[in-house]
Amino acid sequence: MNLANARVAQLLVPVADFEQGIAFYRDVLGIPFLFAAPPQMAFFDCGGVRLLVGVMPPGQAAQRGSAIYFQVPDIHAVFASLKDKGVAFKAEPHIVHRTPTSELWLAEFTDLDGNQLALMGETPLQAG
After folding, report:
1. Are 109 and 90 in contact (CB under 8 A)?
2. Does an H or E element contain 67, and which?
3. pTM passes above 0.70
């Protein structure tokens, strides 16, 4: 047995402040809020993957390292909307890869606790 047929069901995003974490992911990023289990856990539905925004138990250090890439249909529109809400992006959306049929765009940012996040959009190229 291995993970060949597994799917990612839940990701943990550690935050220092429970209420600020909920407000950022729900109100700023607009990810649908599912429920909270105060004072440490809040759950969101991110395209079928559950996002757990949680405060670490006392004495347990937050592990940061994996970036979360949010695939969006219109990276420029989402970028503009989030920027208007105060999200500080590292750079404007930019092309990171081209194929004969599409371009892959990224726009990186962090949440209030320094967790690495990014918008990702794939744009088809026009034929001809």
Report:
1. yes
2. none
3. yes
